[in-house]
Structure formats: structure tokens, C-alpha cells
Amino acid sequence: MILIQRRYAYPMNMIACRHEEMLQNNNQERKEMPRSVCRQILFPQQGESVCRIPSLAIAPDGAILAIAQFRKGSRHDFGHESDIVMRRSTDGGETWSEPRVLVTRPGCDHHNGPVVVDHEARRVILFFRRWSATFTSPRHYLEELITRKDYWRSWGLGTFYITSEDGGNSWSPPRRLQIDHLQVLTEIRAGNGINGIQLSDGTLVVQGCYESSRQGSPDPADVREHSILMISRDHGESWQAGPEWETGYAHQEYCLAQIAPDRLYINQRTRGPYRKVSILDLGTGRIIRQWDDMQLPEPVCHASAIAGGAGCLLFCNPAVANHRGGFDAETRHSLTVRLSCDSGQTWPHARLLTPDKSGYSALAFVPETATVFCLYETGPHHYNDSIAMARFPMTWLTEGGG
Predict the structure, then answer these.
(1) Where do the DSSP E strands lie in 261-327?
(2) 19-393 carries CATH number 3.30.1120.10
(3) What's the whole-number mean pLDDT along residues 290-297?
């Protein structure tokens, strides 16, 4: 296996998790952070450069892999170079390696997608998208891909994935994702951050998306957005198109959890003010139930939802309902973790993780120790100043206390 890594620009050593150092110069939140929660800043802001889009995985050997996009000289989604970076812990999150660059290329804007763990093959698979750093907006991206798809594919645009067989210590060369689909106008590509899942039968399922158009035009009025599950039954060697649905918004940002042998829970970003939940029948590939969950406020932001064992689900997002119908940075705060014990029908347990500004998050659960990890965007001034890791026992959600 080829090692793909470079030293990151941050001049930091391995850090230990000490409660009194949970935040950088933020006395208010240091005072308010619960005693049961340990927090570390893993990816701090560096000048005009920031890290965004957390992905999180617990490798088969127990290593914790915290992954993010390093945006060079900009906070914006487009118009700059960016790398995929990682920090790794082998002692349960007490200390972390120095950041490593997993993916980089001059002139490229790399966006990390879901990371999925294959426990049968003891393999970790990380998806990412490669775009040109010259793309300035989603509309620009669509126009270029639709009108010059062959050129950009030969240039290197697309979705790729890398794999690790040793708990994230080393990674394979990138492989291009290739899924054929008759009605795709652009390409099937991986979604944003967080994690995919492995079903009880061993199938890997990863969030994907694509655009279609009745007229073959990038006109926003004509383009249709679709979410699509990317599935693999050979441990990630090949990928096929799975169930799909038209969304109309945020087709690349949704969470997955298996809640029964034949049922998949899907929790998707909307324009607000509540999260959209769908139940997918894995046998037919069809959505059999869908509703706006009024227990889950939607700030118009990505979120994280994972299985927490024994019919439980964990969910995390900024718990602020956005009634304005679109992106609003002012609603990205008050990151809250919730627990459901009936597969997402009710959410009786909720705890505020931080009152500070916050954005995207990624959850992971270690059943052997009943420990929850949350990698999330946060900051005293902007929701994406830095990326922090929080660690707490499941009992913090169920029993209350400090």
C-alpha cells in the first residue's frame, strides 16, 4: 500500500485532552462546558485558511480518524485550492497525531465526502471530490461539467476514493468512482462529509447525488437534484447505483442509519425550519414514509445521525429553526446532541454541547465503552473558525448532570 501523506502547515504537537484547555481563549464556553464532556480543538484557523466539512470514523483497530477539508486562504465553498487532511488517535481520543495531508494537487479544490468502515474486510474507505480551483460557484461548476464534461474528466475532475487497511496509518492511491446512470446530466458523486454505513448483511452504503435535466441545460429552472445511494457488495472494489429520490434542495447532505434488517433511516437537510426524515424499504428500494420531524429544528445546515446500538439513534446539529427559507449564518449555533430509543420516532434526550457558533458535525459511537465522539465546526466569531472534537459517555445524554 502506498503512503499518501504530507506534513500539515499547523505548528502543533500532539495534544492531550485536558478539561481546562477545551477552548482557545474562550472563557465563557470553558465555564459552561459540561464536566463530562472533553473537548479539543483539532483543526484551528490559520490566518485566512480554515478547515471545514468534518468526516469521522472509528477504524476496525480502534483508531479514531478525524478528517476535514483544508481551505487555503478562504472560507468560501468555491474559488480556492483545498486539501483533505486527517488527524489520528490510537488511545481513545486522549492524544492526536499531527495533521497529515491525505489528498492534494495544485490548482484543485478537494471536498471530502463520507468515510465508511468495512468491518468484515477491516478496511476504511474515504471519498472525495476534485474540482478546479477556478470554479467560482455551483452554477459555474454545473455549466462547465455539462458543456465540457469530457475535458474536465480528462483534467481530473470527479469523485475518487482512497482506502486504508491499517487503521488510517497509510492510504492507497486514489481510484475514480464510476457509476453509469442513464439520466445523469452531470455525474454521480459523493456527498459532503460525515460517514456512510455498513448494513447488517455487509453491504456498504454511501451518500451520493447527481443532477438531471429534461432539456440538457444548466438553467437552474430546468435542473433537477437527486440524492442516490452508492452501494458496494464487494468491500468497496466496485460501486453501483442504489435507491434514489428527487430532493429539490441539499441533495448532497443527508444522514443514514439502519434501523431494521429491511429499513433505512434517512435524515436530510432542508430549507427549514425542520429536518426531513424518510424511511426506505431496503427490499424494494422505495421510500415508504416521509415527514418533517418537528422535534428536530433545521438551521439549514448539514447534520449527523448514526446508530447508537439497541434501536437507538444519535443526532447532532445546531438546534435553531430557520424560518427564513434559506442559508442564514445567524442560525448556526447551539450545537445539540439528541438520543432516540425508538428508531427516530421520538427524541426524549437532548443536551447542549456548546452554545457557541457551530455548523457541520460528524458523530461516531464506540459500543464497547458507550462513548460518543463528535467532530464539529465551531468558533467564537464564525461557525467555521475551527473544528473541534468532543468526547462524552452515553450516560451524559440519558442521566443528565455535569
Answers:
(1) 263-268, 274-281, 286-297, 304-307, 313-318
(2) no
(3) 98
